[in-house]
Amino acid sequence: MSFTKSSRDVSVTSDFLLTAECKQFDGHFRRSFVQLDPVLGNADGSFHVEGRDFSKSARNVCLKVEHGSTILHASLRKMDGSWEDTSFNLDVIVANRNGTLVIDTSTIQAPDGIVTCDTLEKLVEDCRQAAKELKTQTHDQLREESSGASQSINTAFKSIEQMQEALSDGGAYVDRQNFGPEAGHLGFLLSDATSQWSRMEDAVGNASQLIKDFQRTKLHSVIQEIEAAERKIAVDVDDTMLKQKEAKDHLQSLGDQIGQHQKEHTTALNERHDAAMRTIGFSIASVLVPFVFIPLAVQASSERESWDKRAIELENTITETSCLKDRLDGFQIGLERALLAANQSSEKCRRLRAEVKTISEELDGLEGRIHEKKCTMTEYVQTLKDAESDGVTALEYSQTLQEGREILQEVLRVKEDFDPEKLQIMLQL
User: Fold this and answer.
1) How far is CA 83 from the centre of its chain?
2) Coiled coil: present as a keyword of the record (predicted)?
3) Are residues 356 and 210 in the same domain?
């Protein structure tokens, strides 16, 4: 792009108007202006292309030509109130179009369809938040169910112990041979506890299934989006690298053309000079021998005009080819930026994939622990069912007080499995 190569007397006015004398295709220069504020902003102390109004937070603004480019220098105010010295190469966004300064940001914009990770980052963040809410919901639900289950089993064992104490005291039970009412009450207590623990077992199973469903649907869909983005990025990178190679070859060709045209231009200038000298010499000699040297002077003058025309044509061709080469240089800059953006997006995708993997591993761990609790819970429920079935049946058929006591004592052995400390450890996720 480099407007600097085809401009002179470049400056910036007090109202931040870039001005320069720009060369046209015919070789003449014309004064041109372009406003910088609409296309340059201040991003916390750095110039931001396609921002606006950098001048509102700038001081010590000046231009310097460095390494063949026009560099805009300024101190820009940062968000914390401090000032940052920074610079920006105006050749990146300013072009000379046949004597007119224009703003052209096409070479620094990512190509249409370039993959960005903003959407993916939001998807992963939403997924992370949903997973967090799912874990919280799971813990809260299981805590509530476990509280009811623990309370029910404690109530059941306390009532059974009271029943055992009553049988131990004897009294009205001394001559009893039928313990049907006690068996019914025992069945009610254990049935209620079994029902509560079955609900707990179902809640654990549902929690496990919810986590699996989350991984199969939402988590899987996010992974698919990341994989699709990675495939698109790979295609963009291949396409950009191919364009880079083509542009490099084209630049080499244009450079060769410019070199050849410059040689021809030098030859044309030399020939024009020689023809001009011959014209002058023949014109002087024609005073002495007109019929010989006048035709030679006319011919030499014609050759001079022809070489002059050729020199001008070559100058225009060199200018046009140089402008095309500058545009292609700018296009190369755009391709490099696009490739950099694609590589950055690829790196972000890898980071997002790692984050999703972490979420998946955390859920896998939680689901694994819940599954273990589910297996233990099933054993507990079966223990209660067996205690209910065996205890109630035995108590119904018992005929002596001693048998009743022994049966209740056997039922209370189950209490060891439902020790509060063991239950608390078992219910932890």
Assistant:
1) 30
2) yes
3) yes
Residue 340 amino acid letter: L
Q: Which long-range contacts (CB under 8 A, 24 or more apart) does 349-355 make?
A: 349/117, 349/120, 349/226, 349/229, 349/230, 349/233, 352/117, 352/120, 352/121, 352/124, 352/226, 353/223, 353/226, 355/124, 355/128
Is residue 303 domain-shared with residue 425, that is, in the same domain?
Answer: yes
Are residues 67 and 181 located together in one domain of the fold? no
Examine the domain organization and report whether 290 and 166 are in the same domain.
Answer: yes
Phi then psi dihedrals of residue 109, to 5 deg: -90, 145
124 plus 235 within the same structural domain: yes
Judge if 243 and 337 occupy the same domain.
Answer: yes
Residue-wise pLDDT tens digits, 379-399: 777 877 877 777 767 666 565
pLDDT of residue 270: 95
Q: Pairing mode, if any, of strands 7-12 and 101-103?
A: unpaired
| Domain region containing 312 | 107-429
**Percent of the chain clearing pLDDT 70 (strictly above):** 84
DSSP 219: I
